[in-house]
Specification:
By secondary structure, this protein is of the alpha+beta class. The protein contains three helices and four strands; from the N terminus they run βββαααβ. The chain has helices at about 30-35, 45-55, 60-70, and strands at about 1-5, 10-15, 20-25, 80-85. A four-stranded antiparallel β-sheet has the order 3-2-1-4. It is globular, with a radius of gyration of 11 Å.
Length: about 80
């Protein structure tokens, strides 16, 4: 599954999520640092970050499905989006 984090519809980070998290491309390192720490580039780290953004305790698989269907709704980061393919 491919995740693209966007700020104001501009891609800042692309990740490939399988049995691990791999960085495909970092478009804007400064913007990335405001939403994800280096140690969050793991399945557990990504899960915690998405749980934080969505104010949810769903497991990663369910979070990704939810974001894929409904988009990311983050009350305190209105310009942040995540595209899941």
């Amino acid at each position: 599954m491919k995740l693209t984090f966007k700020v104001s519809n501009n891609p800042i980070l692309e990740l490939q999520v399988t049995d691990r998290v791999e960085v495909i491309k970092e478009h804007d390192k400064r913007a990335i640092k405001t939403i994800m720490a280096d140690q969050e580039y793991t399945l557990a780290g990504l899960e915690k970050r998405l749980q934080y953004f969505t104010d949810s305790e769903l497991p990663l698989v369910e979070l990704l499905e939810q974001v894929k269907k409904e988009g990311l709704n983050c009350d305190f980061q209105h310009n942040l989006g995540v595209e899941v393919k």
